[in-house]
Design a protein that fits this description.
With 588 residues, the chain is mainly β. The chain has a domain at 31-183: Sandwich (Jelly Rolls). Helix content is 6%, strand content 50%. The protein contains five helices and 30 strands. Strands 1, 20, 21, 22, 23, 24, 25, 26, 27, 28, 29 and 30 form a twelve-stranded mixed beta sheet that branches. A five-stranded mixed beta sheet has the order 2-8-5-10-3, with no helix packed on it. Strands 11, 12, 14, 17 and 19 form a five-stranded antiparallel beta sheet that branches. A hairpin with a 2-residue loop joins strand 28 (545-561) and strand 29. Bound molecules: 2-acetamido-2-deoxy-beta-D-glucopyranose (NAG) (12 copies).
Length: 588
């Protein structure tokens, strides 16, 4: 019985064949459940209209198992529209109550990904959600005037005879003028230069090394973005550890700064990679074979086979994850707006600046089936050829596994320490030399416990990533010093107990998750974000069906930048928002 329970949980987690027992109904808009993810306002004052808006796509995805991609010609904002900030709005409606499967979606312009998102759970009366994202940093692609540029939305799903729901998706872009009002909660710091560049991306004649100094901060807009994506322009589907996706790129020799931005999501057997016990445990206990790779995954990026950066992804819990009742109507961190990850390639420009093709390879260490990954290479151009030298040293890594188990009870601990330090020298045509040193420390700790004959699963995980960038001139004087610190703790417990009657169990669940990020310049914090989630609840489960569920979800969000602060606190009880307070008081 107990072993069965564990298998049940593993099945719940790994096969995702959860079906809802709700009925088919198509109800009016007013009754539709409105889902949302906590974030700070992207527009300071909702009364201030955008300078202009463009509706890019209206499409109804019907059978998304055969037709996952929808592509139209991209419509840029009118050239007369004055703007400094672009906000992408993705709205979706689902009219069916049956599909409990989470679907992942992405939005691309000219194969450059702008948003990775996932679907909300359907409810009896249908559901509705809207995602807004500041996409200003993609300005070079947003302003493209080439009328054959593609605009694509992909919605990937499992579909079968029982899942007849349709997704209606509308995507728009709203453009706001920075100068028209104070923009207190901009997610972009110091981007005035970026704004100037916005409108004339191909004429960079006036740019010299002066710009190289002032423009370093991460969120200034790149002059060019090169997609590192699948053949058809979309995500790479990575099936296993040896599945290496390669793209050839040849970059402009005027490049003085490059950042690779990765979009990553895990699905199928890999959706709950952080809750995976090692092979030895699953084998000895005769559990579902091949599904016990342990809880370490890392996305590796190489240039011509040389490792240049890695990402240990932050778990994103989809809307039917762990306990579906948790995520109604407030979803988990990143469910609607997946984080993307930056790898600074500036110190590695010496590997790329020779007018030749270079191979950028992406793979998932210990990865199984499947991961959806792609990348955007953001490139900043100077006015003349840049010479670059790299002192290449591969990142170092230490991994420690500590496994101990007897029968179904056990403790599995993994600790990974990854550190890298790269120094690159770039010299502009004018002879100025700038040295960029990027050091990064990644720390991953995953402690997984199976107790009480495997009926109690406890996870305690922490991911920490600290990046330092130091820029110096030819005489060794500091020009800039940036530091980014991110911490992502996650605690999950799942306790399964038999209920009266055959095959029925109660499953008690908790999820405590945090996202904490800060960005500082010369030790002054320019931007900080703190998002806490605390959910507790239980479900009554029969086989693979959830019969009923109850939940409490508390979330706190705090954001601060050079212009102001924003905080919001939301409490949800059994799917009803019982408290929702926000203010703009700064907490020291
Ligand atoms: C959802 O809407 C589509 C199109 O309007 C309709 O064909 C379909 O029957 C609806 N599905 C349900 C479950 O109501
Ligand atoms: C939802 O719509 C269906 C038919 O469209 C209707 O029969 C049903 O009563 C509605 N449900 C509720 C709870 O109003
Ligand atoms: C989407 O629908 C709206 C309202 O019907 C329409 O004004 C708009 O042109 C449509 N957009 C596209 C891209 O078809
Ligand atoms: C969706 O496509 C699949 C695969 O072609 C097919 O088996 C299924 O019947 C289709 N479902 C609907 C509702 O059309
Ligand atoms: C898939 O969608 C495209 C429009 O994006 C449509 O032209 C095509 O007929 C669809 N194919 C199938 C098999 O439904
Ligand atoms: C999309 O646009 C159409 C036409 O304007 C509208 O009828 C529909 O309600 C919109 N859907 C969503 C999800 O906003
Ligand atoms: C669906 O709509 C009906 C009618 O407004 C309402 O009574 C019912 O509670 C709604 N169901 C859900 C799950 O929100
Ligand atoms: C695209 O632009 C070219 C040149 O400006 C023009 O000839 C062509 O008709 C345009 N195509 C579309 C679909 O607007
Ligand atoms: C659809 O639902 C029926 C009844 O619950 C079930 O017997 C059948 O296996 C399901 N089909 C699929 C493809 O899941
Ligand atoms: C890994 O996945 C690729 C792509 O699906 C496949 O061709 C290859 O056979 C797989 N390798 C292993 C060892 O499973
Ligand atoms: C990349 O370039 C290499 C050598 O230049 C070539 O052999 C390879 O086929 C190219 N790969 C792709 C995917 O274009
Ligand atoms: C989470 O919330 C529960 C009550 O719902 C509380 O007992 C617990 O201490 C909270 N945990 C954290 C880490 O805040």
């Amino acid at each position: 019985m107990n072993a069965c329970n564990l298998i049940l949980i593993l099945t719940l987690f790994f096969t995702l064949s959860i079906q809802s027992s709700l009925s088919f109904e198509d109800n009016t808009t007013e009754n539709q459940q409105h889902y949302f993810e906590l974030t700070h306002p992207l527009v300071p004052d909702t009364d201030t209209p955008p300078s202009c808006s463009v509706n890019l796509l209206n499409h109804t995805f019907t059978n998304t198992s055969t037709n996952t991609t929808f592509t139209v010609n991209y419509t840029p904002p009118p050239t007369t529209c004055k703007w400094s900030h672009a906000v992408l709005e993705f709205q979706a409606r689902c009219n069916s109550s049956t599909p409990m499967h989470d679907r992942v979606a992405g939005v691309w312009i000219a194969r450059v990904e702008l948003l990775r998102t996932s679907t909300a759970q359907p409810t009896e009366n249908g559901s509705f959600w809207s995602v807004q994202k500041d996409v200003s940093k993609y300005s070079s692609i947003i302003t493209t005037q080439d009328n054959s540029t593609s605009f694509s939305v992909m919605l990937e799903t499992l579909d079968n005879e029982n899942l007849t729901g349709v997704y209606q998706v509308n995507v728009s872009m709203h453009f706001y003028d920075h100068n028209a009002f104070r923009f207190p909660l901009s997610s972009v710091v110091g981007d005035l230069e970026g704004y100037k560049k916005n409108r004339k991306l191909t004429s960079v004649d006036d740019k010299g090394v002066g710009d190289m100094l002032g423009l370093y901060p991460y969120d200034t807009h790149a002059d060019m973005i090169i997609p590192i994506s699948g053949d058809e322009g979309y995500w790479f589907r990575i099936e296993n550890e040896s599945d290496v996706k390669k793209t050839n790129v040849s970059i402009d020799e005027r490049t003085y700064k490059a950042v690779l931005e990765l979009y990553i999501s895990s699905h199928g057997e890999e959706e709950f990679w952080y809750l995976t016990p090692p092979d030895s445990y699953t084998k000895l206990n005769n559990l579902v074979a091949g599904k016990g790779k342990g809880a370490y995954r890392e996305v590796l990026v190489t240039i011509d086979g040389k490792l240049v950066g890695t990402v240990i992804p932050t778990p994103v819990i989809f809307t039917s994850g762990i306990n579906p009742s948790f995520w109604k109507p407030v979803v988990a961190i990143g469910a609607f707006n997946h984080p993307s990850y930056n790898i600074d390639l500036t110190p590695y420009l010496g590997l790329l600046l020779d007018d030749k093709n270079h191979s950028i390879e992406i793979q998932v260490a210990e990865g199984g089936s499947y991961w959806l990954v792609d990348a955007n290479m953001h490139i900043w151009l100077g006015s003349s050829h840049v010479q670059a030298i790299v002192e290449y040293e591969p990142p170092s890594m230490e991994i420690e596994n500590d496994y101990e188990f007897e029968g179904l009870e056990g403790e599995f601990e993994i600790e990974v320490e990854r550190s890298s330090s790269a120094v690159g020298l770039v010299q502009s045509g004018l002879g100025n030399i700038i040295t960029t040193k990027v050091t990064e420390e990644i720390n991953f700790k995953n402690k997984l416990k199976f107790k009480e004959q495997g009926t109690r699963i406890e996870l305690d995980q922490k991911i920490k990533r600290k990046t330092k960038v130091k820029i110096t001139d030819a005489s060794g004087n500091s020009i800039g010093k940036y530091e980014i610190e991110r911490t992502y703790p996650l605690k999950i417990t799942v306790v399964t107990q038999p209920w009266y009657g055959k095959g029925i169990s109660t499953v008690s669940t908790t999820v405590v998750q945090e996202r904490s990020e800060s960005f500082s310049n010369e030790n002054v914090i320019l931007r900080a974000l703190n998002h806490d989630v605390n959910c507790t609840g239980s479900m009554l489960v029969n086989g693979n069906s959830i019969m009923s569920g109850s939940a409490v979800n508390h979330q706190n969000y705090y954001y601060k930048d050079g212009f102001g602060c924003y905080s919001r606190k939301v409490n949800v009880l059994e799917g009803n928002v019982v408290a929702d307070e926000s203010n703009s008081i700064c907490i020291e």
